[in-house]
Amino acid sequence: MYNHQEIEKKWQEIWARERVYQTKTDQSKPKYYILDMFPYPSGAGLHVGHPKGYIATDILARLKMMQGFNVLHPMGFDAFGLPAENYAIKNKLHPKIATDENIATYKRQLSILGFSYDWDREVSTIDPEYYKWTQWIFLQMYKRGLAFESNEPINWCPSCKTGLANEDLEDGKCERCSTPVIQKPLRQWVLRITDYADRLLDDLDKLPGWEDSIKEMQRNWIGRSEGAEVDFKIKDSEQKIKVFTTRIDTIFGCTYIVVAPENSLVTELKEKIENWSEVALYIEECQSKTDLQRTDLNKEKTGVCLKGVKAINPFNQEEVDIFIADYVLNSYGTGAVMAVPAHDERDFAFAKKFGTRIKAVIFPDEQSEYEGKGAYIADGLLRNSGEFTGLSSPVARQEMIAYLEKNNLGAKKVNFKIKDWVFSRQRYWGEPIPLIHCPQCGVVPVPEEELPLLLPEVKSYEPTDTGESPLALISDWVQTTCPQCGGPAKRETNTMPQWAGSCWYYLRYIDPHNDQALVDKGLEKYWSPVDFYVGGAEHATRHLIYARFWHKFLFDIGVVNYEEPFTKLQHVGLIMGEDGRKMSKRWGNVINPDEIVSQYGADALRVYEMFMGPFDQACNWNTNGLIGVRKFLEKVYNLGELDNFQEVKEVKSLLHKTIKKVSADIESFCFNTAVSALMILVNEIVEVKNKISALPLTKEDFFKLLQILSPFAPHISEELAESLGYTGSIFASTWPQYDENLIKDEKINLVIQVNGKLRATLLASAEITEEAALELARQEKLVSKWLTDKEIVKVIFVPGKLLNIVVK
RNA sequence: GCCGCGGUGGCGGAAUUGGUAGACGCGCUGGACUUAAAAUCCAGUUGUAGCGAUACAGUGCGGGUUCGAUUCCCGCCCGCGGCACCA
User: Fold this and answer.
1) Does the pLDDT at position A287 exceed 80?
2) Among all strands, which nt has the closest C1' to A78 (CA)?
3) Å from the A216 CA to the B73 C1'
4) At what angle do helices A699-709 and A714-723 cross, to 10 degrees?
5) Residue pLDDT, tens place only, A161-210
6) Highest mean pLDDT among A270-284, A474-488, A567-581, A759-773
7) Distance CA A370, CA A383 (A)
8) Tens-digit pLDDT profile for residues A458-484
9) How far, in Å, is the CA of A776 from the C1' of nucleotide B71?
10) Which residues pair with A444 in a beta bridge?
11) Helix (H, G, I), strand (E, B), or coil: what is residue A546?
């Protein structure tokens, strides 16, 4: 009887005792670094969805081990973050205590799944020895001018007097008290990721191992767009409005200007604006909207005309109105646009609502007229455009930019959608930012030898009612002396965002106990870069861009020797509940892996999660499916109880085909078809066994079957290999090779079609010629009846596969 | 709204480059074994018509390209992930 509990416990103890998975570092062998996105240890523990990616990397790690690689396959915890802090606030408990408990739970839950992690290399982002280096990297960025202070808005609940995460908002209102949230500017630290925008974009082309969809998302996130900045003079004033446009060719159709409500220009023009009270009211309304709400193409456009001021189009000297409207964002481009309603959909919708003029200047050809229905947004030929009339859009763009530059009215400009990274949080549970504010010397870094700057103990974890971090209330921590002049100074009280720790953890695993690992780099050369990185698609943009940014910075300062951290990237699809919804306490559809492991076994859970569907696709949990996999493992176990072996040629051939398929499918992450191939092999063995009352394989071949099963189901494979008489771990054995001669088929099913419709499949030699195939087909009644009284127009022959006879 | 991904039997899914649609698993139906049940084994299982051989239809919807389309192109519908302070 297959007693999974006994077997799994036994082998997990042996693996730990014999240190089977200790990372080997003799550099004579090739290396393979397989990385999981490390988890945030939440209080809810693991559900069956979490380990899906870990099972996949474990299978790959075990394959690579058996293929003779030194494998680095570590695990750790990304442990700073809001949930632990919220838990601490609610329960008046130090977040470290809750986090440590959660980590212990996660480790216990992971350990019973039989992973090959080398726990000697565990890292945790909240460990001061770890965040010392997070702080160190930040300081290097600061010293090179990549970190700067800026007033940036946070979500502010005026009633709770607290900053809120986007997640804590409901419909733009505070989740707790339903007060509309406003955008309150606060002094923040910001990282100049935009300095790296071009490299982050261009180097995507150097990553053939990344999925195209994720590269595409990153390209769009970085959002490079080429255009021009143009100065519109304000009438009777020295002031100018600078606008950014990618469609300078439409500028003769500009009928007004739109400025973002929060653009400082608006307050600068206050004296001239005749309807200031109306304008001020609109600006206030905008404070409660998110960018997402503001830029929704479908929503009703809102805005206010600034009465009493006009701007002048530098190309035709026309006077145009100036509006403020929330569909223009201050954070993109110059915070102002020229509006061309005839050639831009948002401008068109706005113009219709506010009754502004619509002037068409781009036409698909010389004859067409503009009918006033919607915007014509494509390129075309210019009309009514002064000296540029008659040019095509692309040519006009070049010549108009040249005109701007010649006359000092503007210039060519590349803009990025990516914004500089607001890197501070007014929170407790994060890495302290190691900077000091000195009234004499300004901002001074904490000296590197004083790192880590420890997170101090506080009485209350709540943000203060000024919006500052709770650290601001600990005056004996805040008050310090300036490292430069020795005078009294204050510490920075903001902390880093959760993303910080995950930007470089893959480097820490390489040498986790060496305090100088980042600066002395012996092993880094051997293990880097990460060969295979697996994690959720939700990280496609932020984490993966942030980590690439930090890595490029570390490359620039000589800490790492290569420009991209992750050679191959694969995203994992979610496991949903049986009801098709995300697993969540709220829906009561959470499946706990502990119960599944105890009832059906870790091997069954592992094989099932790989069998459920394509690895990168979301899939619903189904316990019946798991039972099917369990039955498959029982069949394998029962085969192991036989001790008479009798080789059968067909079975041997199928074994070799399966070795080929499983090896290839693991490398390409097609685990579902690999498991299916293993099931087909085992079914065949069972069927033949029932006929001949012996195992239709040699002992050596049965061991090969166990080897190709072992990455998926390591415990049962070890157990059966042992009872077969093999000593030592199966994972120390060499992955089997398939024999090309054994997998060749002599006969094939040749598909015969008439006019593309299947009419017969005929058994034929794999080498059959077109003539012979046609002759064979004519003799077959099922085919010939479709050929009578018809003329053969064409014959299509795909050797070894198909014959299609086209008749009339 | 914008960006990315997906839609195939009763269900999860397979079809490696445009070449037999439905592998494998679940479920269901029938049978063997059993006093009986469970377990196991065997057979069947896209729909329609037919005793059957077989024929026709069929991969979200509507068009197109092709000897041939689940696969490529155009236009829609629906679901999922992300949208910068959840990680």
Assistant:
1) no
2) B87
3) 21
4) 160
5) 888 888 888 777 888 888 888 888 889 999 999 999 999 999 999 999 99
6) A474-488
7) 11
8) 888 888 888 889 999 999 999 999 999
9) 30
10) A436
11) helix
Q: In what order do the strands lie in the sheet with A421-422?
A: A162-164, A147-157, A182-191, A421-422
Q: Which nucleotide in the DNA or RNA is closest to residue A167, CA to C1'? A: B86
ipTM, two decimals, is 0.94
At A523, the pLDDT band (50, 70, 90 cuts) reads low
Distance A679 CA to B23 C1' (A): 11
Q: Which nucleotide is nearest to A80 (CA to C1')?
A: B87
- What mean pLDDT is predicted for residues A546-570? 94
Contact between residue A392 and residue A220 where contact means Cβ atoms under 8 Å apart: no
Task: Note the pLDDT of residue A230.
Answer: 95
Per-residue model confidence (pLDDT) at position A690: 86
Closest amino acid to nucleotide B42 (CA–C1'): A687
Give the C-alpha separation, A486 to A444, whole Å.
11
pLDDT band per the 50, 70, 90 thresholds, residue A20:
very high
How far is CA A533 from each of CA A15, A39, A470, rounded to the nearest angstrom?
25, 14, 36
Mean pLDDT of chain A: 91
Return the closest nucleotide (C1') to the Cα of A687: B41
* Nucleotide nearest residue A499, measured CA to C1': B87
- CA A728 to C1' B54, in angstroms, rounded, equals 59
Determine if strand B comes within 7 Å of the CB of A377: no
The answer to whether A151 CB is within 7 Å of strand B is: no
Nearest nt (C1') from A801 Cα: B19
Kindly give, in sequence order, each residue whose CB lies less than 8 Å from that of residue A696, ignoring residues fewer than 6 positions away: A646, A647, A648, A651, A685, A688, A689
> What span, in angstroms and rounded, lies between the C-alpha atoms of A75 and A59?
15
Rg (CA), chain A: 33
Q: Which of residues 519-538 of A touch strand B (CB under 7 A)?
A: 536-538
Query: Looking at residue A661, what is its pLDDT?
Result: 95
- CA A216 / C1′ B84 distance in Å: 17
pLDDT digits (tens, 9 = 90+) for A45-56: 899 999 999 999
Percent of chain A at pLDDT > 70 equals: 99
Return chain A residues 671..700 having CB < 7 Å to nucleic acid strand B. Answer: 672-673, 675-676, 679-680, 683, 686-687, 690
Q: Which of A428, A501, A571 is nearest to A78 (CA)?
A: A501
Single-letter amino acid, residue A223: G
**Is A635 within 7 A of strand B by CB distance?**
yes
Confidence category of residue A88, pLDDT binned at 50, 70, 90: confident
Confidence category of residue A29, pLDDT binned at 50, 70, 90 = very high
Say whether pLDDT at A638 is over 80: yes
**How many Å from the CA of A431 to C1' of B73?**
52
Q: Which nucleotides of B are covered by protein (CB under 7 A)?
A: 1-6, 11-16, 19-21, 23-27, 39-42, 54-56, 67-69, 80-87
Strand partners, A191: A147, A421
Please answer whether residues A586 and A579 qualify as being in contact, where contact means their C-beta atoms are separated by less than 8 angstroms: no
Q: Which nucleotide is nearest to A622 (CA to C1')?
A: B12
SS3 A757: strand
* Selection from A316, A348, A294, A24 nearest residue A360 by Cα: A348
Contacts of A687 (CB under 8 A, 6+ apart): none
**A516 — pLDDT class (breaks 50, 70, 90):** confident
Measured from the CB, is A744 under 7 Å from any atom of strand B? no
Measured between alpha carbons, how far is A103 from A100 in angstroms, rounded to an integer? 5
Which amino acid is it at A272? K
Distance of CA A319 to the CA centre of its chain: 47
The fraction of chain A above a pLDDT of 90, given in percent, is 67
